[in-house]
Amino acid sequence: MTEPLHQLYRELGYQFDQSSLLQRALTHRSADESNNERLEFLGDAILGFVIADALYRNYRDANEGQLSRLRARLVKKESLAAIARKLGLGSYLNLGAGELRSGGHARDSILADALEALFAAVYLDSGYQSARNLILKLYHERIDGLSAAMQEKDPKTRLQEYLQSRKVALPDYTILAVSGEQHDQHFDVACQVAELDLITQGSGSSRRKAEQKAAADMLELLLE
């Protein structure tokens, strides 16, 4: 590590009691057997929960699909790497000689993994609330700047809006068949826009997925 850790402490707004946890979080597998891979595994789970909880509370009108897309956008590698760069995390990484030569300190995957490992290190150092506080501090602007409406809407919603904008009656969805065992069912669904004399079919492992597929096919017909 090329920079003194007190600068990183200031950036994080957090002081480690067990500095060895931070050292491990910043150590890539190319540098030492005692590295951040296990911490990254734990940090990934902690980050996913904290972000899911924050989105659930902040976006009360968002449905499951929208919340999932918002979470994926926040926890993807590129977002993590951007936050890590803002912290200057690359300057503190302990990398093997090969990774140093190839610019590993600036690679998205290495930065993202190190940041997740850092979240786990804080959790192990002083508990969940400290890890949550740090994650929300670093993600504050990103969470507040999100809008569920910015995310791609699901096919059923887009079909409904398309038909409403043209003053066409909304589609009817009908289950055509259900097959398979109770724990592994398969649904076939029809989507009908009677006013336009159009019908499509969709299949899926749930009624919702089958309806979404039928709606997507209907949109393709209408937009041809």
What does this entry show, briefly?
It is built from ten helices and three strands.
Give me some keywords for this one.
Double Stranded RNA Binding Domain; Ribonuclease iii, N-terminal Endonuclease Domain, Chain A; mainly alpha; 224 residues; 3 strands
What is the strand tally?
3
The averaged pLDDT comes out at: 90
Helix percentage range: 55-70%
Instruction: Enumerate the strands of the largest sheet in spatial order, edge to edge or round the barrel.
Output: 1-2-3
Q: Helical element count?
A: 10
The level 1 CATH classification of the largest domain is Mainly Alpha
Considering the protein shown, what is the CATH homologous superfamily of the largest domain?
Ribonuclease III domain
Protein model, in words:
The chain is mainly alpha-helical and about 220 residues long. The chain has two domains: about 150 residues, Ribonuclease III domain (Ribonuclease iii, N-terminal Endonuclease Domain, Chain A); about 70 residues, Double Stranded RNA Binding Domain (2-Layer Sandwich), CATH 3.30.160. Helix content is about 60%, strand content about 10%. A three-stranded antiparallel sheet has the order 1-2-3. It starts with a helix and ends with a helix.
Fold topology:
Layout: H1 5-12, H2 19-25, H3 37-58, H4 64-75, H5 77-87, H6 97-101, H7 108-126, H8 128-145, H9 155-165, E1 172-179, E2 186-193, E3 198-204, H10 207-223
Antiparallel strand pairs: 1-2, 2-3
